[in-house]
Amino acid sequence: MNLSPWPLTLLARQHPGIPVAALSESRRVLYASPEAMEAGVQPGMRDIAALSRCPELHAEVISAPSAVAAWAELLETLYARYSDRVEERVPGTVFLKISAPAARELAAALHAPVGLAKSLEVAHLAALRAKPGEVREAGCGAAEKAFLALTPAAHLEVIGLTPAHIERLAFLGVRGLADLMKWSAAHCEAFLGVDVGKRVNRFLKGERTKAVQKYVPGRVIEARMGLDSPLYEPSEADVIFSELLPSILAELRGRAAAYLTVQADTLGGRLSATRKLKGSPDPAGLLRIAGLALNDSGALPLGVEALTIQLSGIQQPGRMVGLWASLAELEVTKDVLDRFPEALVKVQWLDPYAYATDARYQWVDWLTGMVRPTAMTPRQSWKPALTRTQARQQAVERMALFFEAVKP
């Protein structure tokens, strides 16, 4: 996922819908949004000159501590909600190991360009060519080769080239990776230098980074207990877990955790195992998950001398209070009704405790309040009983019809 330059992305999210620019300590423009650059704002300008070009510009100095803190919070959120394998290279670029549906969900949630590929380098190139909120998939085999052939020269920094290298290649007429593929390995090393040339040659041969490193969470809640004698039985481990879990839950203070890790110190070293937590399990569920994690580590046959339980991926659980939580601000209902007057209906309760469905509620028009028959309108599942006179009359009519049908 590409969110670079991170200070500009952070500033744009704090002030949506207006041109923004990130300033240096000397009040010069470091980065500017596309809307600001269209108005004439350029990197290196003083803030006063930038405001004269774009009066509605919001220019602000993003301090390094605040940018680092916001980036760390984003990494913790990705670790808690999407994957335990989250790797960052520089602030603004992060790699995750997720599926294609999860990638589309992530792109839509953060409105960020996301690249999907078999290797980290190709995924980065795909993210650079994706639009905000879009997932660009590179494919594999011939599709990946065709995708790489369209890589522009400006994106070659991903495979190790510097801006000076890209400028020299542009002087030679190299427009992208497709032109660089025609060079020989010796030619690349001679022109780009041995280190950069070898890196480019390895990339073109298919030697790329496949694995995403495990994320080391910054916020961890843990409890530890040392043992006088080695532990070998699962039932004894459950007793220790029962002693450790209350202190962890007290420190959790109603928050949710994404992962539970059990670390077991043995004579041969430390073994650990991690389990993904689904929802907010109760203490009995956490006790069972901790036992399963200890069994996954394979430490019991070796003798456990100390046990540690860790909860990571700490986050505040989200609660949806309604379909449109900020209805007054967004005026969603008004906009929908202006375009589609008959689009919305609302329920009118008649008797919530009635046995028949159609006696419980009915759907009415949002504006007029009149009953609106829709596909969701409950239908009568019964017919009112006939009176004695109506039943006798219906019987007479059936007999008359019968004799008329048999008359010669």
Question: Low-confidence stretches at least 5 residues in length (pLDDT < 50)?
Answer: 324-329
SSE run: HEEHHEHEEHEHEHHHHHEHEEHEHHEEH
Helix content estimate: 40-55%
* Number of extended strands: 13
Which architecture of the domain at 220-312 per CATH? 2-Layer Sandwich
Q: Superfamily at the CATH H level of the domain at 220-312?
A: DNA polymerase, Y-family, little finger domain
User: Mean of the pLDDT scores?
Assistant: 84
Overall 3D geometry? extended
Structural class: alpha+beta
What is the strand arrangement across the widest sheet? Answer: 8-11-9-10
- Please state the CA-atom Rg, rounded to the nearest Å: 33 Å
Task: Give the CATH topology of the domain at 220-312.
Answer: Dna Ligase, domain 1
Strand content: 15-25%
Distance between the termini: 88 Å
CATH class of the domain at 220-312: Alpha Beta
Please describe the biggest sheet, giving its number of strands, its sense, and whether it closes into a barrel: 4 strands, antiparallel
* Number of discrete helical segments: 16
